[in-house]
Structure formats: C-alpha cells, structure tokens
Design brief:
4-stranded parallel β-sheet; 6-stranded mixed β-sheet; Rossmann fold; 17 helices; 453 residues; 3 domains; globular
C-alpha cells in the first residue's frame, strides 16, 4: 500500500527499525493540516485534574469546551461525584467583546455556595487567552470570600500540546500540596502519582501496597481528595505511574520538600511485580515488607497464569499496533503482548521524547514502525502494510481499527474494566483474545480485500 502518501514534513517523525540508524524528531508542534491524534493543552489539564472527586471543576470558555467531560474520560470515585458534573461559564459573543470576568465570578459564587466543594479549579480556554480575562485575579478574590482554594489552570488550548496541559495542571495541583497536617502519615508511606482510576485501577494498586504494609497517603489524582493531596508532602516516596503527566509534580515536590520519586508501570506481569519490588526496596529497615511483597506477587501470578497460558495458544504469532498518549505505557504494552505471544509491528505516542523512542526502537523487532504524533492516514497506512490483527489505542483510534477490519482494545479513555495490576493483566488478555479471535472480521471488506490480494 505504498500508494498511501505521507506528508513530507512528517517524515522525520517516522522511523522503521533496521532501515537506517535511529534519528527521530519529536516534541514539536503538530504539522498544520495533518489532523493529529493529539489533544490540546486544555485537554491535558483536564486529564490530570478531573479525577479529584470533591473539587469543583469550572471551564471558563465557550460551551463547546465543556464537551470534554467526565463521560469522555471516566474516573471512578468511591465517594463524591462532583467531578462528574460539567460546569461552564458559556462565554458568548458579548462576553468576548466586553470580557467574562464578572460572569466567572458570579458562576464561582453560585457553584461554591451550592455544592460546597473542598477546592475549585478554573480552566482557561483558548478564547480566554485571546480576550485577556484575569482569571487568577478572580480566583484570588473568590478564594478570599469563600475560604477554600480557588485555583486557576492556565490551559489555553493554543499554547502548546497536551503535555503543556499536564504542566499547567501540576502547577495548579502543587498549590494544594503542603496545606494539610502530616501527623497521621507513617514513615513507611507513598503517594501514587499518574494513576487516574479509569477502570478502578487505583483501588487495585492501593490494595497491593497496603497488603505490603505501606501506607498510601494520596493517589494523584484517581479517586483523589483535596485533603489527602494537602498532606501528600509527608509521604516518604512518590511513585510515578508510567504516564509522564505527573512527573512535573514529582519534580516540584522533590525540590520543595525533598521527596524522592521513582517511575513505575502497573501494566503486565513483569512491570507490575517490579513496581511492588521497587517500592519495597526503598524501605530496607523493614525487611518484612519485601517478604510480604514476594508472597503477594507469587499468589497473584499463580492465580492468573493457567488462563493466560491458554489464551496465549490462540494469540501466538498475531500482530499488534499500539498508539498511546505517553510512550512509557507503550513499553509495558510491548512486554505484555510479547508475553501473550504477539508481535508488535507498529508503536507510537502523542508525547514521547527522544529517549522514549530510542527505548522503543531497542525493544522492537526489525521492520517495526515507530511514530511520533501520528495522524489517521499514517496509522491506517501502516496497519494495512503490516497486516495487523489488533490495534491498541484510545477513543480516537477505535474508528480506524474498525474501518481496517481488525480487533481493538481501548487502553485509554472509555474503557470500563481495569487493565493494570495482575488482575488487570488477565482482563487485558481476555479483551485482546475476544477481539482478535472474533469471527466477525472475516466478513469485513478490508480483510476480504487483503485475502484476495
């Protein structure tokens, strides 16, 4: 399918392992007209902050931006459901001309009085950056009146990429850190960063650590609470899940409070076990923690191994394509798919850096396509050329997979089942198996066309 063209300006962000020495461009703004799969700065900030369930989330901008809400990227809560409500100042033409600060202040007053949140986040959108509303000033005034943190999130969509939204969110989140008492925080304690509890993963991971004997002070931000974030500076260690979203916050806490951090991944058997062992190793004065950890890993793996081995028999030799937000997640997915006997023929991310792509290049077989900031045309082209059987991505990649007539696994926004942890690995394997082996694909025109060729 070499007839499918690639934009000349995109060639430096596409690498085929084995064809030439690794030299890949990344971290740049999307090429105009390429219909990038990336999201905007505002989207990145919402991904990070929205799971804080007892906070008010108010979008200062046109009503269209409010469409990116809880139901697009779910985040389960064990208590408050305030984060599920989408609030907007709904700026209109008159507000654009005369300014929207009064409207913002009135909205904050009304919502805080009605819902009594622990804190409020105010998200600036593109139009706010253009008309110059002083959102920070309005937040300071409201905070003084209402006595709760009211935090501006400088997330004007045009300012950069989704990764810049992560930074804007961390800047706002950091203002909550250090505000609470640490009297009940154990010396053997951690914060879990970068886990958003899309399918209940935060509860699974938290349970593992607590069974080990490690206190989880806060999860940032899945099933998050403002008060827990306030005392997070008392934890002995920050454990940053594979997403790069909260690394900015981990760096801030290290500089301000001296809190060390490690990076982990909870996807797949190997990385999940390593995540637990790495945390246990940080508390050498408590050797019983490592003993408990070994027992947990052994019991959890023994429980899922028989079914995984059966699934592997059907998936052996099948080919997979991966396109995710952060490249670190792709590392774990490659290992998990390899464990199931599958071969990765395409892998890419929205926000990876040069080191990430170098690592991917080392992990993949010759001929694997590595993409930065891909678009639908490129993804379709390489799925066809590599004859992939499965596509792992998010809500924007799902239509591509189905148009190509191949199985799909949502590892991002809309899924309802946990895919992290040992139980999550089994759920992931079941979903991949069900999708790849479905008999429906034999009737898809795209697959029929390939057979005829």
């Amino acid at each position: 399918m070499s007839s499918i063209p690639i934009l000349k300006a995109r060639e430096a962000q596409i690498h085929t392992k084995g064809e030439k020495p690794f030299d890949m461009t990344c971290g740049k703004h999307s090429v105009a007209g390429s219909v990038s799969q990336r999201a905007c700065v505002f989207c990145g900030s919402r991904v990070v902050l929205y799971p804080i369930a007892d906070a008010l989330h108010l979008i200062h901008g046109p009503i269209g931006c409010a469409a990116y809400t809880w139901d697009i990227r779910g985040a389960l809560s064990s208590g408050p459901q305030l984060h599920r409500l989408s609030f907007s100042t709904d700026l209109r033409e008159r507000d654009v001309i005369f300014g929207g600060e009064k409207k913002l202040e009135a909205a904050l007053d009304e919502l805080i009085d009605q819902y009594k949140p622990k804190a409020a986040f105010v998200y600036s959108t593109c139009i706010v950056g253009i008309i110059g509303d002083d959102v920070a000033a309005v937040c300071r005034k409201t905070q003084a009146k209402k006595g709760i943190p009211v935090l501006p999130v400088h997330s004007e969509g045009f300012k950069g990429t989704k990764k810049d939204g992560y930074k804007a969110a961390c800047d706002a989140l950091f203002k909550l850190v250090g505000k609470g008492s640490t009297e009940d925080v154990s010396p053997v304690s951690i914060n879990i960063l970068g886990e958003f509890n899309i399918g209940g993963e935060a509860w699974i991971i938290k349970e593992y650590y607590e069974r080990m004997g490690v206190q989880v002070v806060s999860v940032m931000t899945g099933d998050g609470r403002v008060d827990e974030i306030g005392k997070s500076h008392g934890a002995a260690l920050n454990v940053v899940q594979c997403s790069g979203a909260l690394t900015f916050l981990a760096e801030m806490m290290k500089e301000e409070y001296g809190t060390p951090y490690i990076r982990v991944s909870y996807i797949g058997i190997d990385d999940m076990a390593k995540s637990l062992y790495d945390v246990a190793a940080r508390f050498p004065d408590n050797p019983e923690i490592m003993e408990r950890t070994r027992k947990i890993v052994r019991e959890e793996v023994e429980a899922i191994l028989p079914e995984l081995n059966e699934i592997r028999k059907d998936l052996e030799g099948k080919k997979a394509a991966i396109y995710v937000g952060g490249a670190f997640k792709a590392f774990s997915l490659i290992k998990a798919l390899n464990y199931l006997g599958m071969k990765v023929v395409l892998v890419g991310s929205q926000t990876g850096n040069k080191e990430d792509y170098k690592t991917l290049q080392e992990m993949c077989d010759d001929g694997t396509i590595i993409l930065d900031d891909a678009n639908p045309l490129e993804l379709s082209k390489y799925i066809i050329e590599k004859d992939a059987d499965l596509f792992i991505g998010g809500v924007k990649e799902r239509p591509i997979a189905f148009k190509m007539g191949i199985g799909f696994c949502d590892h991002n926004h809309e899924r309802k089942i946990p895919l992290a942890g040992f139980r999550g690995m089994l759920a992931f394997a079941r979903e991949v198996h069900t999708s790849v082996t479905s008999p429906v694909w034999q009737f898809c025109p795209a697959r029929l066309g390939n057979k005829e060729e």
